[in-house]
Amino acid sequence: MTIEKRLAELGLVLPEAAAPVASYVPVVHQGGLAHVSGQLPFIDKALVTGRLGDDVTLEDGIMAARACGMMVLAQLKAAGLLEQVERVIKLGAFVNSTPDFTDQPKVANGASDLMFEVFGDKGRHARAAVGVPALPLGAAVEVDAVIAISG
Q1: 97 CB contacts (<8 Å, ≥6 apart)?
Q2: Torsion sign, CA atoms 29, 33, 39, 41
Q3: Which domains does the chain have, with CATH numbers?
Q4: Name one Pfam family in it (predicted).
C-alpha cells in the first residue's frame, strides 16, 4: 500500500508544505537519509503559539506536535520522498514550556504516534523531547526528523 493510500485510509490530508522562515532548506536528502528541518504546528493554516504549562494545555500541545508531524510528512512529499520512506530514524521535539512543565515526552507523542499510524513499525523511532523557553514565531512545539530513504 502506498503512503498516500494509507493517509487516505486514516482520513488524513497533508497540509501544503510550509516555506522556510529563515535561511535554510526544508529537506536535505544525502546518503540515504532525509534530514527534515524543524517544522512548526499549523492547524487550519494557523500557527499554534504559546507555552505549555502556561497558556497551552497538554492536549493542545499533543495536537500541535501531531501538526508538526503532518508538516514533516508534507515536506517529504514536496521533496518527492514520501513514498520512499524506509524508516523513521529519529524525531526531535522541542516544546515551548515553563520551567516547571515536565510532560514534554507526552507532548512529543503527538508526532511519534502519527509516524507509527502512517508507517507502522517503520515509524517507530528514537527521539528527544526537550523543553525550551522560546521557539520561532512563538510556536508551542517544533519537530525535526531524520528519515531513511530507499533507492
Answers
A1: 51, 52, 53, 104, 131, 132
A2: positive
A3: 3-15+27-149 (3.30.1330.40)
A4: YjgF_endoribonc
